[in-house]
Fold:
Amino acid sequence: MRKFVDSHLRVSIADLDQLEKMVSKSSELGYRLIGVPLPPNLMRETIHKLQRICSDAKIDIVTRLNLVPNTPHELLLDLRRFRRMFEVVSVMCNSKSVARQAAKDRRVDLLSFSATNLRKRFFDYAEAELASKALSSLEIEIAPLLSLKGFSRIHLLSRLRKELVIAKRFGVPVVLSSGAKDPYVMRSPYDYSSLAALFDMPQESALCALSENPLSIIKRNREKLSSDYIAPGIRIIRSLRRETVASTHEKTISPSEDC
Amino acid sequence: MPRRMRRRYLHLKIVSEQLVNEKDVIDAVWSAILKLFGEYGASQANLALIECDPQKSYAVVRCLHKALEMVKASIASITEINGKPVAVHIVGVSGTLKALHKKATM
Structure:
């Protein structure tokens, strides 16, 4: 059975009642993991409170950081400061230079673009090529599709259709998220896959974009953030008096071997 | 001889602060289909309201099998009825009413 992820619930941490409502709604709709954007200077106590609310609703929480840098330099500084504090890092690309820098940086997990200002959607061939090399994913939020009306929705659908073709051509993973601010905009994963058909996303790909794709990002980052992690495929499995480093296959590496 | 028309029944759960009657539900679904797929698309759906219980906040609609994806997308896009925020969730889809009720009670 698929494990569904809503990687972006736009909920305010200050409003715990609303947060509780949305967490229980997510659980009811069939999600097993939710991503909540948190401010970088959040107290550890608040995170524990959040985790308690989520565990009561039998749902797992993913700490997420939304970066909105104005320049590539600002992005690099933010990544250096905060990357190791969050499980998922998303960058809202408001300029082309930021978009390019975010796409080529391996520390960035999700590339987000404005849904209302289509001139600020910089996901083109060059962006996709950089993103495919750096393992970044394209994030598509569904909430704007529900809130926009008329021509703005038509233009957004047409733009998303083009972006999907580009992402598929360069093998860039796509992540679908709700971007919901209140429970009335939240839908089940199968409803989202139906809505994704509006921009020609096949149902199977849409379900992958709601489960496997975000799960692989979270799994990779959780592994990286764990204290046992050394490098891809290498982690500490036992610590003796003389430190032993072994590969994930539990094969001890001799000192002569390069690790 | 023409083949029998294949139909699908959808069990909908309506989440709203207000009570939503039969007319409101079917009007909301029709207008969502018209908005997204136009008159040509709406004409292919062969949509009908089969049951609606405002107290239990559920409704059953019927459509043609070929138009199922279109109807599902339209229902998921409903965000308001009578100017009030609403969410319509598809609980189950089936080819017969009997199977649909079984699915919904599970």
About this structure: The first strand of chain A starts at residue 4 and ends at 6. Residues 200 and 250 of chain A are 44 Å apart (CA to CA).
